[in-house]
Specification:
about 140 residues; mainly beta; Thrombin, subunit H; 7-stranded antiparallel β-sheet; two-stranded antiparallel sheet; 9 strands; globular
Length: about 140
Amino acid sequence: MSLPIDVGSVVVDCNVGPLTVTRRTVPVQNSYGGFDPAASVLFLLAPVAAHVATGRDLEQVPEADRNRETVQFYARDASWPAGQSIGFRVADQGHAPDVITYNGRDYRFTTSQNYSTQGAVWCGLATLVDLQAKP
């Protein structure tokens, strides 16, 4: 049986951070039946490593997003600042997906996986945000 690879040291060696993360809550329905904009928090994430997703990585992305540029990000538990929950947030109950700015472009997280046995590292796939859909 082989020991798991310590990915945590790779994150430090291949650091591209600090990168800005925008973390939002879900929009709140107001008394008129509409939705008020979600509150957002900006924070810096470092160390963080990134590479363009290929092959099997893309199978984890929803089919409609496979034609968009997809980047895989790795960050250690210690990368998140105090007061922020650890891990990349994806769209699920009670959360809007985290958006990370990398090379001047915004990417929305579609997957988030905890590799705690491999150096307390989180791995997330993020797809390029459609610029036409931005407010």
